[in-house]
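During the no-cost extension, the postdoctoral fellow (Dr. R.K.) reprocessed legacy sequence entries with the updated structure-token encoder. One reprocessed record is reproduced below for audit purposes.
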Amino acid sequence: MRPPEPPDRILYDLEEALELLAVLEDALEVVAGSDYLGVVAEVETEVSRLHRKLGFDRPSGGENGR
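Re-encoded structure tokens follow.
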């Protein structure tokens, strides 16, 4: 079974987009500085949100969605 295709586009409202941008900018600064582990958790939250918006939160297969 093929994995689902991502949609052609997703929509972020202004608040979500600004939050994503802020987290990514903060992550860049911290990773460039040194202590990257704390930032990974923040980025993971935003990536999870993007993952849901792309529709990948509905696995079609087993436990890992494959």
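Residues 14-53 form one domain. Confidence is low (pLDDT under 50) at residues 61-66. The remaining legacy entries will be reprocessed before the final report is submitted.
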